Amino acid sequence: MNLSAEQHRIPLSDGNSIPVIGLGTYSAPRTTPKGTCLHSVKLAIDIGYRHIDGAFVYYNEHEVGEAIREKIAEGKVKREDIFYCGKLWNTCHPPELVRPTLEKTLKTLQLDYVDLYIVELPMAFKPGDEFYPRDENGKFIYHKTDLCATWEALEECKDAGLVKSLGVSNFNRRQLEMILNKPGLRHKPTTNQVECHPYFTQPKLLEYCRQHDIVIVGYSPIGTCRDESWIGQNSPEILKDPVLVSIGNKYKKSPAQISIRYSVQRGCVVLVKSSNTERMKENLEVFDFQLTPDEMASIDGLNKNTRYSKMAMWDAHPQYPFHCEY
Questions:
Q1: Contact, 191 vs 10, CB < 8 A?
Q2: Which tens digit of pLDDT belongs to each residue from 38-89?
Q3: Count of H helices and E strands in the chain?
Q4: Which parts of the sequence are marked as the site Lowers pKa of active site Tyr (predicted)?
């Protein structure tokens, strides 16, 4: 398959397709100026991005929707050119909440459907208006729900035409098997969005997903924003790794481009986050070279099992996914 900056879609198991490079839209809601996401998404579409990854819990889906609609109105793109991924948040797992939550996202975006809708995390929180419900002692309030029942409600949303493809995020093997082995399964997960980069290569999960035609969508492919509320500040920085720097020098590419190309050659979709024009362009310029098998093996060897986003504040949740090896 010849992928290019202009055309880099790969097939999903349900007959749809997904662009390999996607734009992440998360930024800290309290410190991000209004309009930042709107500007970034419009700029990204102008540059050539067609895959936009968002979520209701990011507090900026209204800006994403406005950007997409503006570019459609300008004639820059058609709706079918854009691939939008939305997410079902932890407080919305009860089956009766799934469709209303998706409909709220569609109303916010002012779009008729989303291309991919995923369960953001396998951990359910107490339903309600608070995204992060806590008790009087400040402890998170969890909720017991059946992931299979949640999935059945998502299948109904797909059958109703509200979403083209279904997927999950941060699911381990056991949680994927729970869905895949569900009696009466009508629509299997097409994707599993997880942290994936040269310091956390996830080989076993990647192979398991390959066996079941589930595409890995990798977030933090070049590291993270190092938000101290989520990320350990002593975590190693991928982009300073001498192996990536050396390979980059050979191809006249940045360490970030080498990291992205590595994931693409592994068959992963990559989510990159930037509002800088030059870096946005650079992140798409990974289709004019190919890493050799030896170079791929060298990057494989960088794996340190370093998970930047451990979400340790929720590690007591019965469905916390990261206690398992994969």
A1: no
A2: 999 999 999 999 999 999 999 999 999 999 999 999 999 999 999 999 999 9
A3: 10, 10
A4: 87
* 143 annotated as belonging to a binding site for a ligand: yes
- Crossing angle (nearest 10°) for helices 255-265 and 277-284: 40
C-alpha distances (whole Å) from 189 to each of 83, 133, 295 are: 17, 28, 31
Q: For 274-306, how does the pLDDT look when each residue is reduced to its tens digit (9 = 90+)?
A: 889 999 999 999 999 999 999 999 999 999 999
- Whole-angstrom distance between the N-terminal and C-terminal Cα of the chain? 29
Task: Please tell us whether the domain made up of 9-317 is placed in CATH 3.20.20.100.
Answer: yes
pLDDT per position as a tens digit, 220-235: 999 865 455 555 556 7
- 3-state SS of the chain: helix, strand, coil percent to 5? 40, 15, 45
The per-residue pLDDT of the chain, averaged, comes to: 95
3-class DSSP assignment, residue 273: coil
Query: CB burial class (10 A; 0-12, 13-18, 19+) of residue 87?
Result: buried
CA 98, CA 182: separation in Å to the nearest integer? Answer: 18
Residue 174, both tokens = 């056991």
Q: How far is CA 220 from CA 15, 139, 286, 304, in A?
A: 27, 28, 17, 15
What is the pLDDT averaged over residues 166-180? 98
Give the H/E segment covering residue 279. helix 277-284
Catalytic residue set: 58
Entry pTM:
0.95
Distance CA 75, CA 70 (A): 9
- Using a 10 angstrom Cβ sphere, with 0-12 exposed, 13-18 middle and 19 or more buried, the burial of residue 85 is buried
